[in-house]
Amino acid sequence: MSKWIDVCNVNDLQQNSGVCALVEGKQVAIFYMADNSIYAINNYDPFGKVHVLSRGMIGDIKGEPMVSSPLYKQHFSLKTGVCFEDENVNVASYGVRIQGDRVEVNLNGAAK
Amino acid sequence: MSNKRTLVVIGNGMVGQNFLVSLMASDIKDKYDVITFCEEPLPAYDRVHLSEYFSGKSAAELSLVEDGFFENNGITIYLADKATIIDRANKTVFSEQGKVIAYDKLVLATGSNAFIPPIPGKDRENCIAYRTIDDLDAMKEAAKTSKVGAVVGGGLLGLEAAKALQDLDLVTHVVQFGPRLMSAQLDDGGAGLLKQKIEELGVSVLIDKNTIKIVDGDVCKHKMMFSDGTELETDLILYSAGIRPRDDLAALCGLKIANRGGVIIDDHCLTSDEDIYAIGECASWNDQTFGLVAPGYAMARTVVNQLAGGDAFFTGADMSTKLKLNGVDVASIGDPHASAPGSLVYTYQNGVQGIYKRLVVSKDNKLLLGAVLVGDASGYPILSQYYLNAIDLPSNPDSLILPARSDASVGLGPDALPASAQICSCFDVTKGAICSSIEGGCTTLGGLKSDTKAGTGCGGCVPLLKSVLDCELEKAGFEVNTDICEHFSYTRQDLYNLVMVEEIKTFKELLTRHGAGSGCEICKQTIGSILASHWNEYVLKEDHLGLQDTNDTFLANMQKDGTYSVVPRMTGGEVTPEGLIAIGQIAKKYGLYTKVTGGQRVDMFGARVDQLPLIWQELIDAGFESGHAYGKSLRTVKSCVGSTWCRYGIDDSVGLAVELENRYKGLRSPHKIKFAVSGCTRECAEAQSKDIGIIAVEGGWNLYVCGNGGMKPRHGDLFATNLDKTTLIKYIDRVLTFYIQTANRMQRTSVWMENMEGGLDYLKSVVIDDKLAICQQLESQMQRVVDTYQCEWKTTIADESKVKRFRHFVNSDKHDENIIFVEERGQVRPANIEERELLKAEIA
Questions:
Q1: Is B809 in the A-facing interface, judged by CB distances under 8 Å?
Q2: A6, A44, A47, A50: best mutation site toward chain B, by most B Cβ within 10 Å?
Q3: Tell me, what CATH number does B759's domain have?
Q4: Which residues of chain A lie closer than 8 angstroms to B833, CB-CB?
Q5: Rounded CA gap, B179 and B188, in Å?
Q6: ipTM summary value
Q7: Residues on A contacting B at a C-beta cutoff of 8 Å
Q8: Do both B391 and B406 map to the same domain?
Q9: Cβ contacts (< 8 Å) between B509 and chain A: which residues?
Q10: Which residue among B523, B550, B811 sits closest to A8, beta carbon to beta carbon?
């Protein structure tokens, strides 16, 4: 079932950076890119085994939007959650959108 | 029914398999149903490296067959089944297991047998041929009850077998019938040195030994009796005295057989039956058989070409070989015996290093006919190119084997090779093929190997392959890529200059003007650092926030559990009792772990991100400011207590340290910077291990630069002596700014110095003599940074919108419940994973 859950105001986001939201008990890292696109993946860093991905730096690798883990610097695709360094490792990716001035997350949402 | 024709390949050894691989890579792969017989239970494996079976390689690792090769290519393989009859009239093959297969074309790749000399007693227990993996297993079994082993045969394979015996911990002997080891490939000089080297490795080598019979031993299982009356006791005997082509199947069906053995083939590798080819060791071409894989592979390629309707010929094969025998380099090229009339010989012998080299050249001194290299085979790739491509020798051919002396480097650059030059003889890859792969975008050795297969056989051509690659890349104008990342084709220094010259103040502006894409953590941090160094704006300003690593973003150091540590500045390591009390109270209140750092201050660990602004509010109220422990920036100026208290102090090291730390605090740089000041030459502050080190002497201050502790310690260089404080600060301003403007990303001053052309003298000429006329700029740049200092924490907590970012959840006041501490030695520490699970389970 596709369900969009209201999370925060757009002003709570910081462009070029990430924030973490608590959505139905899940830690969701939301990234607001320089081009106004927005992505959501799970906040858990499978390498460092702690919830910190929202605090990583973002950018792209060959055009694919990514976040770099703040702990050990592995890169994860913001579209799919797959780790660039080891394709067998991935974090969940979620649907996220901006409706008016609100940010909404869909935990069942397909990755972009 | 398929309308394909049927091709039967008898034998799945190295050459048979190579044939199948070549066939499947060709255009005609779909024209044939392919059936192959393999009498061994395992498909093709690497017989050349058989001895590695004993040094740990498994049968699977020796396999030459990729997983799924037969299935994916639709090839039927009958393992452990042997073709026994070829009915040429009805074009049918019969096997031992009762298979009856009609063929259109047949390829014989039956290989060879180990030659076992007809010695009475040769079939005694634990007397084994050295040829197959089954043989090796038998040998392993026999070795269990043996102490001594002997190899009959001192050729290539015999010496490999000797290594295998040594690997099985047996006392090892090599028994050679003739006067020298590797008699086909080496001359007396080379063989003599090889014998000496092999003996040094603990293998005894007996030459000129004709075994006349093998009988019961007195001490060991067997006694080998030699014609000269001597004898050798051994428990295990391995035969490796050469090979005999397996031509019995061919002979049985009436194919022509050479007098010296082997199925006779023509230049097309066709036997006397126009539908039957023979390749590899079972074939005899021009009355010659070939016991190496490269000629077999060449025959395999010829047959694939023939089947495809081509007109390729087998034209004989280069029998050159290079190998490492028990760690000894040995190579042989062409005819090492100088059998051609009038041929000339050059020899180089180095008894000290154990090197022997021999060149055989034509009587006009122009062409290389053969060579022997023992002890140092590094010249093999070049020499074999001279030989294979008949390239004119230099006027002094001996320069090719003499050791390089200062000015005399006579090499054959890969550039001199024609495109037709064969670089890899195992897979027949020419220089032309390698160059076109490079032109096609292949720029790495690994890429070339998978693209062309060159270097993936015996590996002997890899050095040459590499030099062809390097040469071609250089010609194509490639350089070592110094771009910081895919988004900016610039070095850090280039970027700094762009920022400075074009007065660029944001990442966005620089990216728009000079970059591509949206950036990554490498370029963002680098440019964030450059902008901070040069303009010294607040790092959490909207434009800069996304450029900071998590430590800079939250102005604290992230630890392994996602919490942060907090370090207030204590200039020069000086702290008041009130300050200490405040820190103690704050740490206690927030449950932080405290530890004194190597930089003479107190670190507080275990702060959650949401606690950071609260903690800092209290620290600032108590008079502290940010310690910049999180930044690539000035960290601390360590000091000893100095002349104020110390009986030996010459000057006030603490006073100077405080002044310097206050001057340079907040300075962002390519990497962290540490200072220290010692009050006398006892050097209690360890200033010589710092980026900037200062030691008080009678005449003033001595300045050391570019020292480092840590992973790669480096003593600082004494830069200037007896300085007054004004000059000292002027020099430090200049050195640091020059470092910030020219160093690479994440390069400490020590590495910066080591990579600086001209080194210390150059740095002195820039900083002291103002050789580049930039000192004024360097100083004014530093002064701007000094004048615009701000405590980042003070700025941050005064701005509500910034404080808002220090929440774990943007939509909840909850904390990250996965942060769990346990107690150790009276303080907290992060729970490890097991403890975390346990505690979470208890709570739930």
A1: yes
A2: A50
A3: 3.30.413.10
A4: 49
A5: 8
A6: 0.93
A7: 7-8, 12-17, 19-23, 27, 30, 33-35, 48-52, 55-63, 65-66, 68, 70-71, 73
A8: yes
A9: none
A10: B811
Percent of chain B with pLDDT over 70: 97
Predicted confidence (pLDDT) at residue B478 exceeds the cutoff of 70: no
Domain map (residue ranges) of chain A: 5-106
How many angstroms separate the Cα of B289 from the Cα of each of A87, B47, B170, B262, B299? 50, 18, 33, 7, 12
Instruction: Count the Cβ atoms, other than its own, within 10 Å of residue A69.
Output: 24
d(CA B568, CA B571): 10
- B181 and B191 together in one domain: yes
- Report how far Cα B628 is from the mean position of its chain's Cα atoms: 38
Q: Which of B483, B509, B518 to mutate to test the interface with A (most CBs of A within 10 A)?
A: B518
Indicate whether B827 belongs to any domain. no
Let me know: does B251 contact B282? Beta carbons within 8 Å: no
C-alpha angle B146-B149-B155 in degrees, rounded to nearest 5: 155
What are the C-alpha distances in Å from B63 to residues B78, B461, B484?
Answer: 17, 22, 42
The pLDDT tens digits of the residues spanning B162-176 come to 888 888 889 999 999
CA distance B320 to B360: 13
The CATH-assigned architecture of domain A5-106 is 3-layer Sandwich (2.102)
Q: For residue B68, what are the contacts with CB-CB under 8 A and spacing of at least 6?
A: none
Amino acid occupying residue B15: V
Residue of A nearest to B806 (CA): A19
- Mean pLDDT, chain B, whole residue set: 89
pLDDT given for residue B113 in this prediction: 87
pLDDT tens, B527-568? Answer: 999 999 999 999 999 889 899 988 999 999 999 999 999 999
- On chain A, the residues whose CB falls within 8 A of the CB of B558 are 52, 55, 70-71
- Residue B793 CA to its chain's centroid (Å): 46
SS3 B766: helix
On chain B, the residues whose CB falls within 8 A of the CB of A48 are: 560, 562
Parent domain of B506: 492-548
Task: For residue B777, give every residue at least 6 positions away whose Cβ sits within 8 Å of its Cβ, in sequence order, or none.
Answer: none
Specify whether the backbone of A37 is left (phi greater than 0), alpha (psi in -120 to 50) or beta: beta
Nearest-angstrom CA–CA distance, B481 and B489: 9
